[in-house]
Design brief:
The protein has about 1250 residues and is of the alpha+beta class. The protein has 5 domains: about 260 residues, no CATH class; about 210 residues, no CATH class; about 80 residues, no CATH class; about 160 residues, no CATH class; about 220 residues, no CATH class. It is about 50% helix and about 10% strand. It is built from 42 helices and 15 strands. Strands 1, 6, 7, 8, 9, 12, 13, 14 and 15 form a 9-stranded mixed sheet that branches. It has a two-stranded antiparallel ribbon with strand order 2-3. The protein has a two-stranded antiparallel sheet with strand order 4-5. Strand 4 and strand 5 form a beta hairpin. Helix 9 packs antiparallel against helix 10 and helix 13 crosses helix 20.
């Protein structure tokens, strides 16, 4: 899209210009967009002027001296109360006649309100129900009907009293303002009052300052009246004080002027809604007045605010200064902890969202640290000189050379040294230094592996650990020592000092780094003021001084960040060609001409801690309304889930673990609440927000952005990669000095560090030349039969393992419960991960509870197997395998003439058209040859022709499912398969033709391996011989395996690639036996899994080389089960495997546009995730514009200008990272990270 894309499309422009006048006037809809009778406008005009008419009655009577000002206000209020009650009664009656006023669902309220605004009303006459509903919509809740009506009367009464002409003359009498100024103030003030009354009692306008997506409890009508009452409250305080307070007099004069400008402030959206204002006020008081931190949720904010206020009030009433010191140190430490996690620790519950905490061993450490801090504070306070023993010089003038430095001065110098050391150690660990202007020469560059990175950052990690110890242990104790020896502690019975020291002792723990900086500033001021000229500053006391320094430092840092953001918007609107609109030159000239106004807007937004709002992200700046630091009203955690969300779900937990150490060591800078970070790895972009921080813990919110990259997303993601490459790879640039400059300093993203994170690496390959090659496809049939036999044997052994477990009486209660109801799975043990076996085979595999189980690396133990264990079950260790040497007599290599086993087929029936001399020689079964197991080295099951076998295939029996199985070996019963698996509706001749394909060597090899794992009692060699010589067992498995092969349609010697892909996806073509196979769901799932294993085996052999031995094949199949998920991306098993962190995942796909088959492999390994810090004011400003643009202007056009790619501000990524419904977050996780040692 070009830079001159419309800011609002034609429809939205028309809608906006209908809504904005309504907002300015408080609710009257004077521009409808369709023809309406004149009485509709007259009704609204009369109702708008009603407060002025009713208030004029009281004003006129007062001016005529017929009643005093109080009675005049009461009369006007009573008249307004009656008018409001009449209107609301009429609205409710009309609503009951035509339909009850219904409460709109929260999820649809915003959309429905927009549609209601656009609905065309057909008016019949001036008092028709539709006219009344249009003019006075009414309230949804009866309690609001009463509350708003009473408040309307109170507002009109106080407003009349507030705006009496005599009162206005008295307020401005001393300033020499004449009647010419009072009259405009009187008239315009009544306009403001009428706007507030109309929005309260008649119809509420949509506010430009919208915080909540929907007004569920009708709070918006209260916003304007409450601001009016706040202005009146100052005048009430002035009158109650007798007018003797000069400050109140000045405040009243200023507020009377601002009262006139309230409609403009409401229209510009500079005044917060009631809910946002309360949350913002509590947050500011908690942080700067009580020493706390912005909280992650509204509930935590309210609870922490009330708790902190109670502590401050208690401090004021404690008589002893020593008790105050001990109490504030203890309460400061306790309130700086995450008490919800401590409570969960005692209850033994796991929290959701997950928490990376220290566990129980942190409690003794915390108690020991708190005891040491209280002991230190108490001793130093008792040993410090009392005010009666101090001279004025020793108290106030630290810099005097005639006075020996006291212990507090020495501690002050220690604090300065600690600040310098901790700041230097923090800067050394980052990729950039000096606010991102220079690259850190000590940071490793061009690191290709995690091991190399860890080795080369060993020194930086040592610096981080040193900083952690200094900041978490030494600095709090030093600051407590400084405060405990302060002389102003003896004057705590003033409210300001009580609050100041409560905050000081709290901030020592809550935010040690910022507290250290603020305390050092106080120390430097005291040291610099050697002659004691700043008497008023010293009289404030150290506690109040720290509050002032905290406010100044916070507002100064916000001002600088906002100025950088404003300059970025201004400069890039011209330098970025794709951002240069036709109006760019005019806007730049206008901002240059109004530079003082621009500075005033930036300064005002910094003073109010409000976002700087660039309208449509253009260089047109407004002051956004003050709101909590996290910018959004709802509790973090809402997301727009999609199939790709699972990758962020896995990444969030691992990234949080890496952030634990990075935040503790200072790798990411100060990382205070409100900080935003961007993590990048391959195609994944994680947005990290710090919500709350205390002593040893930090709550972060990790959001995953979309993986299906749009063009805008791709442009910004490419710039993010360039920024990180410039810092971490540091390509050589000309000039010795330039190579240390950050080439992307102007970007809102500043690189911090690379974090080792265990995350999935995504590799996608085109399988051209592999999956479509006949040389490779010819091995598929043999591989499938071998894989299926292995899976079937393992399935039987799993059932046997469960029967052994039940026989031994392990877990009787769990076994009894499962025998009654198989729906109740046994809870996994520690470290076990449960995953359905069939999840790798079929999307509906979760319906088979018998096929669920746990991952394992061996089959040698059954102690922990259950009826829901996987095919291959969990085994803690693999036993050494003893190779079995079984030899048969030569007499067994052939059959005597005329001899035939019952049910066998003569060899001539298979090869009736061939001469016997041309048949391959049948060799005896010899398990002592070749590769240690007696297997022929030349037979790997890879030939297209009939394979050479080790026993006479004519001895293989057909299995009649209607007859009982007569096994020659008693141990074969445990390997028996269900009867339904043997009755495939296939002609015997077809199966007989495929008998030579049965891999008998492999079948014997699997039996020998499983015998040595202790499944059967007796001598292993004898058991193995008996199983291998059981013709019925061999015929059973041959018949089932070949039936599955035919049912899938994969019996061709060289299947086609399309057939392979269809069968892999579970969409086998219609063939004989397919319905039978699908009817046996368990067998179908096992067969599909075997086919997918064989496809993966085919690809691996084509890429890595053929399997050299049966032992290698056996190990490969075990590896597939233990470490791989082989299936489809769309299956539930893929999602579960990612969550359970399966080491590898494989999926087969097809690119229809290119006509190729593709393979996708996810590998779980430790990789470097690059993390950078974002300009938080840039983020808040763009989010403020997004909130205004979507919630007020309803500009949801996907091609709008404000969502286009901006490589410097990262506008598209920032919009995506907003909380839903405004953003496009794929995964949302709030994680408490405990980062203390």
């Amino acid at each position: 899209m070009g830079p001159d894309v419309p800011l609002l499309n034609d429809y939205k422009q028309e809608f906006f210009w209908k809504r904005f006048p309504q907002t300015v006037l408080g609710g009257p809809r004077l521009k409808l967009g369709y023809c309406a009778p004149p009485y509709v406008y007259m009704h609204q005009l009369v109702l708008f002027l009603t407060p002025w008419l009713l208030g004029g009655v009281g004003t006129l009577l007062y001016q005529l001296r017929m009643m005093d000002d109080t009675h005049a206000g009461i009369l006007s209020g009573a008249l307004m109360l009656g008018a409001g009650a009449t209107l609301q009664t009429l609205a409710q009656c009309v609503a009951r006649r035509t339909g009850t006023v219904q409460r709109l669902p929260a999820a649809r309220m915003f959309v429905d309100n927009i549609l209601a605004d656009e609905e065309e009303v057909e008016f019949t006459h001036c008092v028709a129900p539709e006219t009344v509903r249009f003019v006075v919509p009414g309230k949804r809740f009866m309690v609001n009907v009463v509350l708003h009506t009473v408040l309307a009367g109170v507002l009109c009464g106080f407003g009349t009293w507030y705006l009496l002409p005599d009162r206005l003359s008295a307020v401005y009498g001393d300033s020499g303002v004449g009647l010419g100024a009072v009259v405009p103030v009187f008239v315009l003030s009544w306009v403001t009052l009428c706007i507030g009354e109309y929005s309260l009692i008649v119809n509420t306008a949509t506010e430009t300052a919208t915080f909540q997506p929907q007004d569920t409890y009708e709070i918006t009508p209260l916003t304007r009246p409450l601001y009016i009452l706040a202005f009146i409250a100052v005048d009430v305080a002035l009158r109650c004080g007798g007018g003797g307070v000069a400050e109140l007099q000045v405040a009243s004069q200023v507020l009377h002027v601002l009262f006139v400008a309230l409609p403009v402030l409401w229209a510009l959206g500079m005044l917060s809604p009631v809910d946002a204002l309360l949350l913002w006020a509590m947050e500011q008081i908690l942080v700067h007045g009580l020493g706390g931190s912005p909280m992650a949720t509204n509930h935590r904010l309210v609870v922490m605010f009330l708790s902190s206020v109670c502590v401050a009030v208690s401090t004021f009433f404690i008589p002893s200064s020593l008790a105050v010191v001990l109490f504030t140190v203890a309460m400061g430490y306790i309130l700086s902890q995450d008490l919800t996690q401590v409570t969960a620790l005692f209850r033994g519950k796991k929290h959701d969202p997950p928490t990376l905490s220290l566990g129980w061993f942190s409690l003794p450490l915390s108690v020991l640290l708190l005891a040491g801090a209280m002991t230190e504070a108490g001793l130093l306070h008792q040993l410090s000189p009392s005010p009666g023993n101090l001279s004025l010089a020793s108290v106030g003038f630290w810099g005097s050379s005639s006075v020996a430095p006291g212990p507090q001065v020495v501690v002050g110098w220690i604090l300065i040294a600690l600040l310098l050391v901790t700041r230097v150690l923090r800067e050394l660990q980052g990729a950039c230094v000096f606010w991102g202007l220079f690259l850190n020469p000590l940071y490793p560059r061009q690191v290709s592996s995690v091991q190399t990175f860890k080795r080369r950052t060993r020194g930086l990690r040592a610096a981080g650990l040193t900083r952690r110890v200094l900041l978490n242990f030494v600095s709090p104790l030093a600051m407590i020592a400084f405060l405990a020896m302060d002389t102003s502690l003896h004057k705590l019975h003033t409210a300001s000092l009580a609050i100041g020291f409560t905050r000081a002792f709290r901030s020592v723990w809550q935010n040690s780094e910022d507290a250290l900086l603020q305390m050092v500033v106080v120390v430097i001021v005291k040291l610099a003021d050697g002659d004691g000229t700043a008497h008023q500053w010293h009289e404030l006391g150290t506690g109040v001084q720290l509050i002032v320094v905290s406010l100044i430092s916070d507002r100064l840092s916000q001002f600088l960040a906002k100025m950088k953001f404003a300059l970025t918007v201004l400069i890039t609107s011209w330098t970025e060609t794709k951002q240069r609109r036709q109006s760019a030159g005019a806007l730049l000239a206008l901002n240059g001409a109004l530079c003082p106004l621009l500075l005033a807007v930036v300064l005002l937004s910094a003073l109010l801690a409000a976002p700087l709002l660039p309208l449509f992200t253009l260089p047109v700046f407004l002051v956004g309304f003050p709101r909590p630091q996290r910018s959004w009203p709802e509790t973090p955690g809402t997301s727009c889930p999609c199939p790709d969300s699972v990758y962020y779900q896995q990444l969030s937990a691992r990234l949080a673990s890496a952030l634990k150490h990075a935040l503790a060591n200072g790798v990411l800078g100060s990382a205070g609440p409100g900080s935003h970070f961007l993590g990048r790895f391959q195609d994944r972009v994680a947005w990290i927000t710090v919500l709350e921080r205390g002593y040893g813990y930090c709550t972060v919110n990790i959001k995953g952005l979309e993986l299906q990259e749009t063009s805008c997303h791709t442009v910004e993601a490419r710039r993010v990669d360039e920024v990180f490459e410039g810092a971490f790879d540091r390509l050589e640039r000309p000039g010795r000095f330039l190579r240390f400059l950050n080439a992307h300093w102007e970007n809102s993203l500043t690189p911090c560090s690379a974090l080792p994170v265990r995350v999935y690496s995504d590799a996608r390959n085109v399988l051209t030349g592999i999956i479509d090659s006949p040389d490779h496809l010819c091995h598929l049939r043999s591989d499938f039969l071998k894989t299926l036999l292995w899976i079937l044997l393992c399935q039987c052994l799993q059932d046997k393992a469960y029967s052994i477990r039940r026989a031994k009486g392990h877990s009787l209660q769990a076994s009894g419960r499962k025998s009654q109801n198989s729906q109740h799975p046994e809870p996994p043990g520690p470290g076990d991960v449960k995953m359905p076996v069939a999840s790798q085979g079929h999307p509906d595999s979760s319906s088979s509870p018998n096929l669920r189980g746990r991952d394992s690396s061996s089959l040698s133990s059954f102690a922990d197997w259950s009826d829901e264990d996987d095919l291959f079950g969990p085994v803690p260790a693999r036993k050494p395998v003893k190779m079995i040497m079984v030899r048969t007599e030569q007499s067994q290599t052939g059959l005597e003439p005329g001899f035939s086993l019952p049910g066998s087929a003569e060899i001539h029936s298979l090869y009736e058209n061939m001469a016997l001399a041309s048949l391959p020689t049948l060799r005896p079964l010899g398990l002592g040859l070749g590769m240690g197991l007696g297997l022929p080295a030349t037979d790997k099951g890879r030939e297209n022709q009939i394979p050479t076998v080790t026993t006479n295939i004519t001895t293989t029996t057909f299995i009649d499912p209607t007859q009982p199985l007569n096994f020659s070996c008693p141990h074969s019963e445990s390997l028996s398969l269900p009867t339904a698996w043997m009755n495939a509706p296939l002609p015997p001749s077809r199966l007989q033709a495929l008998r030579p394909c049965f891999p008998e060597e492999w079948f014997h090899f699997c039996l020998s391996r499983m015998v040595m794992q202790g499944f059967w009692e007796g001598e292993p060699e004898q058991v193995c011989r008996a199983l291998q010589e059981d013709q019925v067992l061999r015929g059973l498995y041959s018949q089932v395996a070949l039936s599955c092969l035919v049912a899938l349609g994969a019996d061709a010697a060289v299947p086609s690639p399309s057939l392979l892909f269809r069968v892999y996806c579970g969409d086998a073509p219609l063939s004989d036996g397919l319905d039978w196979l699908r009817a046996n769901k368990e067998l179908h799932q096992l067969t599909l899994r075997a086919f997918r294993y064989s496809v993966k085996l085919l690809i691996d052999q084509a890429s890595l080389g053929p399997v050299e031995s049966l032992e290698e094949l056996y190990t490969t199949l075990q590896d597939y089960h233990n470490d791989w998920f082989i299936g489809l991306v769309t299956e539930r098993g893929w999602h579960d495997s990612v969550v359970q962190e399966k080491p590898f995942l494989f999926s087969l796909g097809q690119d229809l546009t290119m006509g190729t088959y593709t393979g996708r492999v996810l590998s779980l390994q430790e990789n470097l995730v690059q993390v950078g810090v974002l300009n938080e004011e840039c983020v808040r400003g763009q989010w403020a514009n997004l909130s205004w643009e979507l919630l007020y202007a309803t500009n949801d056009d996907e091609e709008r200008y404000s969502i286009q790619a901006h490589p410097v501000m990262l506008r598209n990524l920032t919009v995506q990272a907003a909380d839903p419904p405004l953003g496009l977050v794929m995964n949302h996780a709030s994680v408490g990270v405990y980062c203390q040692t």
